UniProtKB/TrEMBL annotation:
Record's keyword annotation contains Signal: yes
Signal peptide: 1-20
Gene3D superfamilies: Tetratricopeptide repeat domain
Superkingdom of the organism of origin: Bacteria
Protein name according to UniProt: Tetratricopeptide repeat protein
Length: 602
């Protein structure tokens, strides 16, 4: 029983001591935070005397903060002598000399440590970690590099070195480490591409990778991971021809089905590298009809030709040739659920470029009647069919088709788009009150573009009806708007120019300028579009189109006219002059990206 009481007394005594020490630590930290360094040091010294090793780090850090380097050196050397095999105190000694400015003395200690590393992987990792924790990344790298030599294994510590090089933003080191690592760790290719992209800052950095890859491919041409990474490098540099050449060379060497080429062509088309995408699809098609990518490549080849032709200057012969390509494809594969996508593309070509409205309507009516078409594709075809009904002077069929899409896709962006098209139909046909009621519902649409379109059209109608309740000038403007939608630009311009003559003093001056701007953008005449947009921004700064004009100027300068500095100016103008604009968030995001912010959301 007496022994039991002694144990209980010792237990409470130990706990009381520990409680007191914890209180002292908290008090010392409080003194340090309040700038009372000496009082904090006195407490740390008291604790250190109670237990050298348990409170060494706290006392050591406090001494360094107070620049009492001699005292820090004394206690550290004492522990170095006590524990000659412990690298923790040796590294701490080097830290003291570094903070004193005596880097030669610190380097001598560290160099000796590197030379005498133990042949133990875990111990080496621990030592490197201590250097990293002491903010000495360079020596952490040297420790791992020396560890590889001692252990005769260049594959060790790859993850650690990759992270250290990334932390240092050592582009050469990171590049070489990944090139050593990837051949035996190919699933990490995507991670490597992502990390390199986050560190590289321009063409010169990507050239580091390109030259390193070319050198390795020359030495080891069978290592396909290098070819894949080189293709990615060319894509980042927007050298699309070389990217495709590398991918084609790899596909031929492997004699594969071209699936990687098909994926690459999608990227090329997205980047408007249409010639390269066409070459890639033609390569897949040449593999024959038994190839699993044959049908998809055929369809995408024609779609890419479509994009190439319609995105630039084209002739009637170009359009007719493209139409024949689509017809040949449908004749080869039939009109079925697999070719509905091509039917939709052909119908749009016929309706808006060739103005063969009856042919387009017949084709889309056949497309929407095909069973088991993907819901999203079916909805897109129906909305296009509604547009063609509208252009064919069949407004009742148009509104019925739009309504079918809306009811068939409840609570979706597709439904909101269909509802917007119904509102525009009412506007085009002069039923402004119905259109305005529908547009007012869409002002709260989840999609910003739809909400913005609805708001602008609603304000256009309201502003003009307030001046002219009969809406005579507005009806003429709506007819011009419909002609622009139908891509009958000559007729649209004649109508727009007639508004001012027939209805002098109307309130549509800025609207006419915006309509003409849309025509110019449709025709790729971006410089001329800029002139009109500046007129709107300068002369009609209070008009509903003012913020749209400013944002469009930023967009044109950024994406079409290659002038990011001017683009940044116009995005800034949205932020400062139009804080209530629906374009505000987009303008802020683009401004920050052009300014070079690493985190666009900051």
């Amino acid at each position: 029983m007496k022994r039991f009481f002694i144990i209980i007394i010792l237990f409470f005594a130990c706990n009381a001591k520990l409680f007191a020490q914890n209180n002292d630590l908290l008090l010392a930290r409080q003194y340090a935070q309040n700038g009372d360094t000496q009082k904090a040091l006195d407490i740390y010294l008291k604790l250190y005397k109670q237990d050298n090793e348990a409170y060494y780090q706290q006392y050591f850090n406090a001494l360094l903060s107070a620049k009492k380097f001699d005292d820090a050196e004394a206690i550290t050397k004492k522990l170095v002598r006590k524990h000659p095999g412990s690298y923790e105190y040796t590294i701490a000694l080097g830290t003291i000399y570094t903070q004193q400015g005596n880097t030669d003395k610190a380097d001598a200690i560290y160099t000796d440590l590197v030379k005498n590393l133990p042949a133990d992987q875990n111990e080496i990792a621990s030592i490197a970690s201590q250097f990293y924790q002491n903010a000495n990344v360079d020596y952490a790298v040297k420790i791992f590099q020396q560890g590889r030599k001692i252990l005769h294994n260049d594959a060790l510590f790859s993850f650690e070195l990759i992270n250290l090089y990334r932390y240092k933003r050592d582009k050469n080191g990171l590049t070489e480490e990944y090139l050593n690592f990837l051949p035996s760790n190919q699933p990490f290719l995507g991670q490597a591409e992502s990390m390199l992209a986050s560190v590289y800052e321009g063409p010169q950095d990507y050239d580091i990778l390109k030259f390193a890859l070319l050198k390795r491919i020359q030495k080891d041409p069978q290592q396909l991971i290098y070819v894949n990474l080189l293709t990615w490098q060319y894509l980042q540099q927007k050298d699309f021809a070389q990217a495709l050449n590398q991918a084609l060379a790899l596909s031929r060497r492997q004699n594969d089905d071209g699936s990687n080429i098909y994926e690459l062509c999608t990227t090329l088309s997205t980047n408007e590298a249409y010639d390269e995408a066409i070459r890639g699809y033609e390569y897949i098609i040449a593999k024959g009809k038994d190839n699993p990518n044959y049908v998809s490549a055929k369809i995408e080849l024609i779609n890419t030709k479509n994009l190439k032709i319609t995105s630039g200057k084209y002739t009637q012969a170009d359009l007719l040739g493209l139409e024949q390509d689509y017809l040949n494809l449908l004749n080869e594969f039939g009109r079925n659920r697999s070719t509905v996508f091509a039917m939709q593309k052909l119908a749009n070509l016929q309706a808006f470029k060739l103005h063969k409205l009856k042919d387009a309507q017949t084709l889309l009516e056949a497309a929407v009647a095909i069973a088991d078409v993907r819901p999203n594709l079916l909805a897109a075809c129906k909305m296009d069919l509604g547009d063609i009904y509208l252009l064919n002077n069949q407004p009742w069929d148009a509104t019925l088709t739009y309504s079918q899409v809306e009811l068939g896709n409840p609570n979706t962006t597709v439904a909101q788009e269909a509802f917007l098209r119904n509102a525009k139909l009412a506007y085009y046909t002069g039923d402004f009150n119905l259109s305005r009621r529908q547009l007012d519902v869409l002002k709260a649409a989840t999609t910003q573009l739809i909400a913005n379109d609805a708001l602008n059209l609603s304000l256009l109608i309201s502003d003009n009806l307030a001046i002219d309740s009969a809406g005579a000038a507005l009806k003429m403007y709506a007819r011009a708007d419909l002609l622009i939608f139908a891509e009958q630009t000559d007729k649209a311009i004649l109508t727009l120019d007639s508004i001012g003559k027939k209805y002098p003093g109307n309130a549509l001056a800025a609207d006419v300028l915006m309509a003409k701007t849309r025509i110019l953008i449709q025709q790729k005449q971006y410089t001329d579009a800029v002139v009109l947009l500046k007129q709107i921004a300068d002369n009609y700064s209070d008009n509903l189109w003012a913020d749209d004009a400013v944002f469009m100027l930023g967009d044109l300068y950024e994406n079409k006219l290659n002038n990011p500095a001017l683009a940044q100016t116009f995005y800034q103008k949205i932020i400062t002059d139009y804080p209530g604009s629906l374009w505000l968030n987009d303008a802020r995001k683009r401004f920050r990206l052009l300014r070079g912010d690493k985190n666009e959301a900051s």
